[in-house]
Amino acid sequence: MQLEWTEAELLETHAVEEPLFAGGVKCHGGFKADGEYVSPRTKNRWTAIENWKAEHTATFGTGVPGVYAVGDVNTYPGKKKLILSGFHEAALAAFAAKEYLSPGQKVPLQYTTTSPAMHRRLGVSPDLSDLA
Ligand SMILES: Cc1cc2nc3c(=O)[nH]c(=O)nc-3n(C[C@H](O)[C@H](O)[C@H](O)COP(=O)(O)OP(=O)(O)OC[C@H]3O[C@@H](n4cnc5c(N)ncnc54)[C@H](O)[C@@H]3O)c2cc1C
Question: Tens-of-pLDDT digits for all 132 residues of the chain?
Fold first, then answer.
């Protein structure tokens, strides 16, 4: 999935576009053979936006590599400004940050309820006998 685009790519037009210039300004796009209207300079932009949206909700990365945005500060289709949304986003961002810091290193998903490693880190000794 392409996430990085040059300015020229983002401003590229469809081949079918027949721009109307008025006062030196490009005013409209063009029509494809099937009659669909395409806006000016949108040959790659829609794909770029869709790719960024998909990437954003998988990692909550920003335009700055290694910087993530979770909680009320971000927005995407279906976003609900709730505490649990921020926690969910933070978990995905944390995994993404780890991948950014240690590319390719597998990070197992562990539960605080059952992981002895996490119990050691947290300094707790829960009774797990009823899970056996
Ligand atoms: C009245 C109200 C009731 C709500 N009730 C519920 C509820 O019952 N259940 C629920 O799930 N959600 C509820 N929410 C939503 C929930 O509060 C938010 O979704 C959640 O607090 C977002 O957390 P956050 O960390 O992203 O942002 P915030 O909690 O807003 O934290 C952002 C922090 O950044 C600080 N900050 C801002 N700018 C700067 C800066 N430049 N430098 C340093 N610090 C800065 C702010 O002071 C703030 O402390 C409610 C919201 C409101 C307004």
Answer: 888 899 999 999 888 877 778 888 877 888 888 988 888 889 999 999 888 888 889 999 987 889 999 999 998 889 999 999 999 999 999 999 999 999 999 998 999 988 999 999 999 998 888 876
pTM, rounded to two decimals: 0.74
- Residue 43 CA to residue 39 CA, distance in Å, equals 8
Q: Is residue 27 part of a domain?
A: yes
Is the CB of 30 inside a 6 Å radius of any atom of ligand 1?
no
Quote the ligand 1 centre to 80 CA distance (angstroms): 13
Range of the domain at 74: 60-107
Cβ neighbors of 113 (< 8 A, separation 6 or more) are 126
Which ligand 1 atom is nearest residue 81's CA? Answer: 19
- Among protein residues, the one whose CA lies closest to atom 50 of ligand 1: 82
- Is 54 within the bounds of a domain? no
